[in-house]
Amino acid sequence: MVNRKELNPEAGPLAAFGARMRRFREARGWTQDHFATLVGCTGRHISALETARKSPTLPFSRKVDLALGTLNTADSFEREWREIRHGSLLEGFPEYLVHEGRAVEIRLFESGLIPGLLQTPEYAQALEVSNVKRGSITAEQAEERVTSLIERQAALVRSLPPLLFVVLDESCIRRPIGGRTVMDRQLERLIGFAEETNTMLQIAPFAGGEERPFNRAVNLLTLPDRSVISYVESQTHGHLDRDIGSVAPLLRAYHQMQAPALSQAASVDMITQARKGTP
């Protein structure tokens, strides 16, 4: 083939994505131009992606899965895109999202930051802009992260939505993110969240001191078969766990944390005072 560039999938995540996409395409006997018509782009764009000169997006990856028949399979390009986007820092998170989308109960604990499911777009954007400034991600990746977060939130809007229990360390509402206007709207979002019929919001106040059992974010999902899985993140790793022997203690600790936390009414009062700038 004229001007065919040899690919090295070991050169990095984008190169691996492009090389695998080319392999799947050629296995079906498709040219770049034909494949482009199936996913709604140009042959030149396919070439740039296969040679890692451009980064895939979430919508594109989903179209690739539809064209190749890899949607929701182990070969899913959307799954690979999420792994590229999150990198090794969030190992297990793409799989967690699949389970989150079908969970009947979701329990979250967060310290320092509002959890993603409750973030406003402006709050999320402020966090990602900071990541771009530090050079940890590109501007395009930041935009994709915010878009993906909005889609993640929308996936929980169902005819029978999951029960959503959230305990926030007080630091989440005290730490200013994005300036006064952004933070005010974020706190307003929390108050609105507490008013929904399928939610419970509690603040674990600073005064609780050592009673708080967690020092990092914890996500617990109850699935339709009533099994429970956990996802715990550190600064450098994420771990998805289905073993009841290790998940059960987390669930017990979560319930123990809820008891001394503020009631939902008292939590809303604290958030309202935080909006006014009073302690």
Description:
By secondary structure, the protein is an alpha/beta fold. The protein folds into two domains: 9-75, 434 Repressor (Amino-terminal Domain), CATH 1.10.260.40; 91-276, Endonuclease, Chain A. It contains twelve helices and six strands. The chain has helices at 13-27, 32-39, 43-50, 58-68, 77-86, 93-100, 121-134, 139-154, 171-174, 180-194, 244-258, 264-276; strands at residues 105-110, 163-169, 199-204, 218-222, 228-233, 238-241. It has a six-stranded mixed sheet, with helices on both faces. Strand 4 and strand 5 form a beta hairpin. Helix 4 runs antiparallel to helix 5 (77-86) and helix 7 (121-134) runs antiparallel to helix 8 (139-154). The mean pLDDT is 89.
Concise description?
This protein is an alpha/beta fold and 279 residues long. It contains 12 helices and 6 strands.
CATH class of the largest domain: Alpha Beta
Beta-strand percent range: 5-15%
Assign the CATH topology of the largest domain: Endonuclease, Chain A
| Overall pLDDT level | 89
| Low-confidence runs of at least 5 consecutive residues | none
What can be said about the biggest beta sheet? 6 strands, mixed
